[in-house]
Amino acid sequence: MKNMLKNCFCCTSHEDHEPTISAHKKTDYPWNMYTLKELVHATNNFHNDNKIGEGGFGSVYWGRTSKGTELAVKRLKSINAKAEMEFAVEVEILGRVRHKNLLGLKGFYAGGDERLIVYDYMPNHSLLTHLHGQLAVDCLLDWPRRMSIAIGSAEGLAYLHHEVTPHIIHRDIKASNPLEKLPGGIKRDIIQWATPFVQKDSYELIADPRLKGRFDHAQLKVVVKIALACTDSNPENRPSMLEVVEWLKSGIGGRRKEIRIVKDRVDETEDEDDFCDDDTDYYETFDMKKHSGRVPKMPSRTR
Ligand SMILES: Nc1ncnc2c1ncn2[C@@H]1O[C@H](COP(=O)(O)OP(=O)(O)OP(=O)(O)O)[C@@H](O)[C@H]1O
């Protein structure tokens, strides 16, 4: 693994002062080694107007190559041992990752004081922006899309945990790091915040108020329970990501199927059953035990 990176650095270092125009494609690796000139040109010399984000290690710029391909270029802000490590790990790890739900590495440049990582450009902004930022105001991310994102994210993580060799543990998944500030400046995490509602079986109070009640109650319970299982203080009790995907798909997908079937029946009989809000039957039939021996504790039901 280290050798691979070392080779990469060797291949690019000669371009420090003499960048060439074309990007090299090494056929044995699935990414490009860009020239500095090409990335400077693509990002308008890392112009502030091209800046699309800022992370712990540097700024991210939007760019377009001479062939018209859109890029996101992360420019590490300083070259020290920590930044070199971040660069090496990101290039090495992302270089091995190929999944429809995960950001792809397009390539990189390393030379002199520049460390640039090139990704596919993601035009749809972050989940955080859609949930809590400007886009949340402009266009509400509806419940079905939220559930698709949950399943898609879980699938991406399951791929990292179970399919890539060696396995990859991300350890920093976030739409943000949701912390609620309490009076006195104490912070508690989202699990501490949600647990009392779960204990009182008041799941609807956990849902994003922006949804104005337009969510599926049974699906909400399923995802909250899975989230609680994933954050169990005893790691032994936490499900694998494969189990999480299975639970989400059977819980959410099964629920969708059930709604369709019930809807068809309702359409046929003109019966006015309130199938969307009455989740009791479905909830009782969603049995995580069927899918795994390790089952999150169900809160006591009050009705
Ligand atoms: N491929 C991309 N396409 C579009 N925007 C991106 C892309 N990569 C990053 N960004 C934007 O740049 C921001 C910073 O990304 P970066 O990966 O540096 O930070 P991070 O992962 O949020 O932070 P940290 O480095 O602290 O883990 C992101 O929040 C996002 O808004």
Automatic annotation (TrEMBL):
Residues 46-303 form the Protein kinase domain. PROSITE patterns: PROTEIN_KINASE_ATP, PROTEIN_KINASE_DOM. ATP binds at residue 74. GO terms for molecular function: ATP binding; protein serine/threonine kinase activity. InterPro entries: Kinase-like_dom_sf (IPR011009), Prot_kinase_dom (IPR000719), Protein_kinase_ATP_BS (IPR017441). The keyword tRNA-binding does not apply. Keywords: ATP-binding, Kinase, Nucleotide-binding, Serine/threonine-protein kinase, Transferase. This is Protein kinase domain-containing protein. It comes from Lactuca virosa.
